[in-house]
Amino acid sequence: MKQLKETLQRIDRKGYKAYNDIRGTFTFPSFRLHMDHIQADPYASPSRARVEINHRQLHMDKDLYESGHRNVAFTDYVARSVGKALRQQKAEKSIFIDRPGQEILERTAVVCDMEKVEVRLSIHLPARGRTIMGVQASKLLTEQLPSVIEQALYNIDMEGLKKHVALSDDQQALRAYVEERDALAFVADGSILPRVSGVENRPLDPDRAISFASPETMAATVSLPHFGDIRGMLIPKGVHVIVGGGYHGKSTLLEALERGIYNHIDGDGRAYIVTDTSACKIRAEDGRGVTNVNISPFIDDLPNEKSTDRFQTDNASGSTSQATNIIESLEAGSRLLLIDEDTSATNFMIRDYRMQQLVSPDKEPITPFIDRVRDLYEEEGVSTIIVVGGTGDYFDVADTVTMMDAYRPYDVTGKAKDIAEEARSQRITHESAPFSVTSTRQPLAKSFDARRGKKEKVDARGKHTILYGKETIDLSAVEQCIDPSQTRAIARTLHYLAKKYVNGNYTLGELLDIYERETSSGLDELSPFKGKHPGDLARPRRFEIAAAINRLRTLSMQHER
Ligand code: ADP
Ligand code: MG
């Protein structure tokens, strides 16, 4: 630390480049500081540093971070604690950590192994114009930073940390229970589903929200290790239809299930909502590109005689994009599709009797989802949870029907089946090609060109955009990618896979397996700053990585021979 002070004194008022002299490792009384990367000028992206603290100094109970899910919860809590200390000590304009939101994701912001905890920070080194402000820098690095670490790590809110870790045990147990019961999801009584607004992920004020209460017929009680007994709605495998009047909370329930693939913090309202982690939200996405996808289970005989078992387009329609999104999710290994009428193509969802009479089957290329949803479950074991307020024809294919009425769920399966029996639908079931869930598509190396000018450039812009060389990948319809740090990690993964593995010998599914295997002990592997500072990544699922690859407009796929 003394050495760092002296260097900063020496380079005070020199040109910005002289900051390079503080690259390296400095020992402080309670941690080591690695200055890994020094920004080239005051306007470049900030410098990168790691604070390394040995467990021998920190004295935290091993139990808190030893196992997989606890490690994620532990590091998540430490990242929150550092973020809070930075704000409270008014250092958040100069020192940054990739701060978690409502979800608890595996992140690279804080890493903890059996020897040490490492906190990854970005730091704006102070300057006036391009002149080093050595005194301020010294204050920042040798006073503020140690004081933040003191508060955030050595004086961490131990009660809060233990609760956070205990919650992760309960969430783990709840997921195990849902799997054991061969179910899709669990929504605990008392959960708060609605959010503050469409763009705000925090819960609606409890005074204004109606909390969830399971219908008796669908209720189950689970015994969690810390919480104890908890009652909620257990959604069984199969075809689950959610009905109800407009504005009665259907989409809100489906959105909560979409997010149930992630764990949520205490107080979020969704801490005890879990969904099968392979669940994929499926929606229409007209305009997207499609590369060599077999959508023939849904769509056949297009008017321009385009092949649909190797469907290719730069500009998909509502129905072809929705069909593509389903087939691609199956290809990546999804076991549960989540569909909302609000974001679906009507002609993909349903075609009623009258329309069948007017437009004869040989003139209609689409086999609507209603005619495939049972096959998907019975032949492929893929379940569906679907919101349809507009048509009762879905009663025929449903295993369960839940009605949302003034934000409360009711089991109306029996009633719906009676109605279906009384008023038989005259619809004719459409027959079409069988599903082939195992895909043989192999991405080719030429798809991935990271060059932009003389350099390679692969990066993320916010949550919805990846820049890959000269290409832009649009993820705005990939709703379960929820954090910009996930998007960054997806960008890194694409580049990583392209460099090492994409050569026309691996199917997309195999590439996703490789991603999971190679990052099984952490996402640092993906970073270009490996061993130094990859502090701004959060783990994406294989489905979101597949979604990004599938939306690359230069994608070229061959079929395995
Ligand atoms: P639907 O899909 O049935 O038309 P939404 O799910 O979009 O209805 O909900 C309509 C509105 O009601 C939204 O503004 C939503 O935030 C709010 N809302 C949903 N569930 C609840 C609830 N449990 N308590 C209070 N407000 C809710
Ligand atoms: Mg809706």
What does this structure look like?
With 561 residues, the chain is α+β, with helices and mostly antiparallel strands. It has 14 helices and 31 strands. β1 (24-27) and β2 (32-37) form a beta hairpin. α13 (508-518) crosses α14 (542-550). The chain is globular. The mean pLDDT is 95. Bound molecules: adenosine-5'-diphosphate and magnesium ion (MG). Adenosine-5'-diphosphate is lined by residues 193-194, 204, 209-210, 244, 246-252, 404, 407. Adenosine-5'-diphosphate (ADP) binds next to α6.
How many strands appear in the DSSP assignment? 31
Number of domains: 3
The averaged pLDDT comes out at 95
Name the shape in a single word.
globular
Summing up helix and strand content along with how strands pair, one would put the structural category as alpha+beta
Rounded to the nearest angstrom, the radius of gyration is 26 Å
Residue fraction in strands: 15-25%
Give the uncertain stretches in residue-range form. none
Major pleated sheet: 6 strands, antiparallel
Distance between the termini: 61 Å
Bound molecules: adenosine-5'-diphosphate, magnesium ion
**Fraction of residues in helix:** 25-40%
Helix tally equals: 14
